[in-house]
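thoughts on my protein:
***
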Amino acid sequence: MFDLNLVKPFLSVYQFNSITKAAEALELTQPAVSAAIKRFEKIVGYPLFVRVGRAIEPTSMAHKLARQLGEALELMEGAVSTKRDFTVYTPANLLHKLPMMDGVLLIEAPVSVDDIVEDIRMNRVDLVIDAGIPKQASLAFEKATTDRIIFITDPEMSDYPEKLSMEAFLEGKHITLKLLRQDVPIVDFLSEKAFNRDVAIEVRNVTNLLLALKGTSYIAALPKTMTHLAKGMGFKIHEPPFELRPVEFELVFHKKYQTNGQHQALRDMIRGYLNS
């Protein structure tokens, strides 16, 4: 008969490659962990670890079993988790759409995709709102919201019409918002073109873009979700004179939380705020 109580000792020894470290992590004695491994080997019918010098190494069957049981255990633990406090990574341009929520800590997302994925795997973050996280077997993805780019100018310093022409766009001076991950201007990235335009200022965050634009005759690109900030500062809104693909944001999280009721409620609540 399969005993679920033997799974954690097995996975812990597999993770640490050490009965001693596994026993410390599980707060058990070394003999108890060793006995659990022997009982588990008897149940599955093959050796799980072999001794190499003073260390132990998993067998090929142990590698296969660890992958299968690790995913299953994470899904089960996630489904019954009673966790009430959540940490959420979100991009800066969406922070203003999320109000204070009890038991939810909002943090501006790290630049590095690898850091974000590692934080999800290590349970340092419960939910990530992002665009462009690569699909991985251990991660779940749900549609969050869509954003797109508009252009803004200071009407006190320029007289661009609301319908910005391609000629005016190319002849004007620009403030470009450069994406940290791709290291290219956001307009070039979303249009998949390299425009030959006069760049006066290059910034890497929206706050600096808004401050740099005020009192100039420049043109700047801005996420549409921040239109209210632009209008509040007296800027004029212009639609792009060429096609720009939208930015599709997703909710990214560990698969173990797919069926967790509280996590699902959090995702639904955040999705509602982002699309309100």
